[in-house]
Design a protein that fits this description.
The protein is α+β, with helices and mostly antiparallel strands. It is built from two helices and four strands; from the N terminus they run E-E-E-E-H-H.
Length: 148
């Protein structure tokens, strides 16, 4: 099949803050289970009125940094993913879908890759963000916004 380019184009990313620590308890034997890490992820869509077709998805993630820590990584990261909508003839519903669904999904996929690359040289090797239930994430975000 021949592919058609999406009107939503990823432009790059800006790392705002990063903290990676290695947590090693004072036990002789370490049971490393990174899949059990508590993960807190939040995102926002940031728009500039002067740049109608450009926007950012800001993601803030905390991994294994709340409550009882599990051996391995303790990570805090804030990163902006830059996007551009390249078509001027899209209706408002399509634009909203590109921003609220597609861009968030692309940003999280990029985040997963970024985390793997960033953690690769550390003692515990690459950390891979587990699969995320996007419907649940969107529902939690909606509830958070409604409670403001």
């Amino acid at each position: 099949m021949k592919i058609q380019n999406s009107p939503l184009q990823y432009q790059g990313s800006l790392l705002n803050s990063l903290s990676i620590k290695q947590f090693i308890p004072k036990q002789d034997k370490i049971s490393l289970s990174m899949s059990d890490y508590a993960i807190d992820l939040n995102f926002d869509i940031l728009e500039n009125a002067n740049q109608v077709n450009e926007f950012m998805v800001r993601i803030e993630i905390g991994i294994n940094n709340k409550g009882k820590k599990i051996p391995g990584y303790v990570i805090s990261l804030k990163i902006d993913y830059l996007f551009q909508i390249t078509s001027d003839d899209l209706d408002e519903a399509t634009i909203n879908n590109l921003k609220s669904m597609s861009a968030i999904s692309i940003a999280i996929a990029r985040l997963r890759s970024d985390l793997e690359h960033i953690t690769q040289p550390y003692q515990f090797g690459a950390y891979s963000l587990p699969s995320i239930d996007m419907q649940d994430l969107f529902a939690q975000k909606k509830a958070l916004i409604n409670n403001l």
